[in-house]
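A protein record pairs a chain with a discrete description of its three-dimensional fold. The following entry can be read in just this way.
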Amino acid sequence: MRDQQNRSSLSRSLILLTCATIATCCLATGCETTSSRTKSTVPQDPQADAFGQLGYKLDWRGFGFVDKGQKPRFLEPMGDVLAFQESGSTLSILEASNGGVRWASQLAGPLTLFTTPTREGRFVHASSETELFTLALDTGTLVGRESFERVITTRPVQDGDLLIYGTSVGEVMAHVRGLGVKLWGFRTSGAIEGAPVRIGSAVGVVAQTGDTVILDASTGSLLGRVRLFGGVTTDPVSDGNLMFVAGSDQSLYGIDPDGARIAWRIRTSRPLTVQPSVVGGMLYCELPERGLCSIEPSTGSVRWENKNLRGTVICTRGVNVIVWDGSTAWLVEPSTGDILSRVELPGVSILSTDGSTDPVIYVTDAKGRIGKYLPR
């Protein structure tokens, strides 16, 4: 018994001696406490740091639903909400203010293909190849399901109750939302893969044969037609006056909707495959061997070109513009094309903006993790 007491007393003495030694060392050299260790090991946020160089700050992070084996397909800002749809056909609506999920609904099977969802007031429209799904924006309740007369291949241009699509058989089709019928159709000579573009009260469409038509949006009457030498792998864009087409026939076109007259043409050495854009009153397009170019929309004259820049101009930020190529973003001086900063954004699957002038930027990775960035 005495031996046990002696051993116990010795153990307590050793423990006290050890604690005293540690305390002395801490006073002499400094000691990493739990709070300081936590502070020193807080992970950096490379994505937020990268956006900081572009003039943006992180507002929130959230999650859109992505089923196993699926991936994000659409990330569409819609004012006070954000629409997120994955390849398995589940549509999520998130609050733009804080990233909270308002609702999520699986619309069809995982093999059903959809185009970009659109908003109309307090409703959201999701278009599959064969059906239109209309859901209440507040609750996700399915309030309408209508069949299309043709298999659609593009997102729609909206004109009142009309949703105007391109189709696989080459028909431009105006579907009457709510009635489930086709109001008008106009047949081109090839399948339509580039989305229709609004040009004032008209709609412009390019078929894969190069057949290019300008139609009245409300009636479908032909306003002009011209044959290019190839189709498109990008969507036509417009500044409200002309339609701009980056063609697979190695040319960039400016087309006047009045009679579909070709106002100007820039010939290149290879097909054009990068999405052009109109931002801040200028047309931007990556041209083979020339890099990103700033182009006067009315004349087609190239203001500047930069071989070190690739991608699509997505928006202005202050007096500058931001270029995005799918993995890298650049901040660029718009009058000269000089690169002000370059940042890598690895892991970003989709990047979307809610406009073209100092917009909010949303990004998502392959797992549906979403970030919202605000101009600072």
Remarks:
- The radius of gyration is 28 Å.
- The chain has three helices and 32 strands.
- The chain has a mean pLDDT of 91.
- Residues 2-29 form the longest helix (28 residues).
